[in-house]
Amino acid sequence: MKEFYKYFFLFHKVLSKKLFLKKFFIDVIYVLTMLLSFVLPIFLGRIVDNFRNKKALDAFYVYALIYIVVFTLQQITQVMRRAFSLVEGPRFLFERSISSVIKRKNENFVPEKEMDKIFSFEHIFEFFYGTFSMYVFILPVMMILTVGVIIFNSWKVGVIALVGFFLTGISSNKKMHKEEKIADQMSKAEYKVSEVFSDLYSGYEDIKAYETFPLTFKWLSTALERLKKAYDLFGKTEILFGLSYELGVILIMPLVIFLLGFQVFSGNLSVGRAIMLVIYIERLQSYSKVYIEDTDYISWVIARAKIAYEQYLKEDA
Fold first, then answer.
1. Alpha-carbon distances of 315 from 62, 143, 310, rounded to whole Å
2. Predicted confidence (pLDDT) per residue in 44-53, tens digit
3. Opening angle at CA 315, ends 309 and 316, nearest 5
4. Phi-psi region at 312: left, alpha or beta (left = phi > 0; alpha = psi -120 to 50)
5. Are the beta carbons of 178 and 235 closer than 8 angstroms?
6. How many helices (H) and strands (E) would you count in the chain?
7. How far is CA 124 from CA 129, 184, 297, 307, in A?
8. Which member of 24, 81, 107, 308 lies 3.0 to 4.6 Å from 121 by CB, making a disulfide possible if both were Cys?
9. What is the largest CA-CA distance in the chain?
10. Contact by Cβ (8 Å): 5, 138
11. In whole angstroms, what is the distance from residue 120 CA to residue 118 CA?
12. Nearest CA among 162, 137, 175 for reference residue 292
């Protein structure tokens, strides 16, 4: 995930000061909502443990207040983030990219090709300012906090969670490393196919005049074959690591439920705390799933972001 953080920072660094401060404010509110929602299971556990007791009512009031605050802040930031990630951020990057191309214009400059390439980055320009990228950005912190709470309340369950956390991290790093290389190959293959089609369209009359159709179609066939191989390799990697993750979930979750149930019936753990721990374990699995199921998408974005930044957004581009 090192490359993700690198380009997350770079795509924020290129923003103007005004846009950067606006994005920073949106992200601070988002982190606040994540932290507030993080403590909700603690108060839910207290409500269950103190049922028919005044403490349960106090815990319920706090729970309800936090929930309302989180919901309200989420609605506000969603509107602000949508406007920023879909309009303000991408518009600034498009203007910067076009300005960069015009400044370094040379004899090989083809406006149509450059504009097509720049506007093909639309999704990448939106990605780094959207909710998902911010979610991935703070995910390690949320996972560490979750594991910490689990260990504090039940060290046995915490050990299982910790093992799962490290296995997910190792598996995710290997998967990302492989997929980043494959995504880079895919990106290059896609550009090659696009370039061949563009050359075929613009030079059709010359190809027809010199009767070089067989050679041209051979180039096209080679480019498409490279693209196909890259996609096949990407799919195989995704299936391999996806199966290993599902197997881990199948083994860990029943073990955790059994251990918590045993502790509750033996009187070593309250029902409320057990419910709280189940919620945190489920959240930990949800966090881990991003590192396994979404790394293909993240790898593809990074491969495209690398090209966009190096060729169009970098100061000396």
1. 49, 35, 9
2. 999 998 887 8
3. 100
4. alpha
5. no
6. 13, 0
7. 9, 14, 11, 10
8. 308
9. 91
10. no
11. 5
12. 175
Q: Compute the distance between CA of residue 195 and CA of residue 108 in angstroms, rounded to an integer.
A: 14
> Two tokens at 84?
């920023």
pLDDT tens column, 114-153: 777 788 788 888 899 999 999 999 998 998 899 899 989 8
What is the spatial distance between Cα 223 and Cα 194, in angstroms, rounded to a whole number? 9
The residue assigned the tokens 């019936």 is 265
Which residue, chain included where needed, has tokens 């309302």?
68
Between CA 158 and CA 169, with CA 164 as vertex, the angle to 5 degrees is 125
Model pTM greater than 0.70? Answer: yes
Q: Which domains does the chain have, with CATH numbers?
A: 2-313 (1.20.1560.10)
Residue 262 token pair: 């045993």
State the first-to-last Cα distance of the chain, in angstroms, to the nearest integer. 25
